[in-house]
Amino acid sequence: MRFLDLAKARCTTRGFLDKDIGKADLEYILAAGRVAPTACNQQPQRIIVVQKPENIIKIQKAYQTFGSRCILIVCQDKSHPLIRPFDGKCSGDLDIGIVCDHMMLAAREVNIGSVMVGLFDPNIIREEFHIPVYMEPTALLILGYPGKGFLSPDRHNTERKSLEQTVMYEMYG
Known about the structure:
By secondary structure, the chain is α+β, with helices and mostly antiparallel strands. 35% of the residues lie in helices and 17% in strands. Helix 2 packs antiparallel against helix 4. The relative contact order is 0.23.
């Protein structure tokens, strides 16, 4: 599949079948995250794979899991952050976004749905999974087989702004 076709085929999935993800597919998804580019190759991602029902219940205290049987807690190591000197912006959030994007695309390639969540209570996740203070729970990547299939790749024709609305050349405006 060509990259743009894969990118169009990936969609947010909220509602999963009660079915485990195979070990080979999970390792493929994780390998895609491993090769994702990060600022200065710092690789700040630390991923906790959660599959046991008693641990999924712990995640549900912080956010809903849509019936998933596999959630990745994607953390960033803040012990040696790469900080932009001009304004203090840390590269870690961008890095985690790229890592998650790689994993979501790999998941879609093997017909696994995903939703990346940032709107969860990190304190609950930190406490329930004994995450050290220098490690920041940044995203939940919820994976599984879609209960209602995948959305049409053609949805972008009407659901996305045109390039003319989002792209400028040479300067803003």
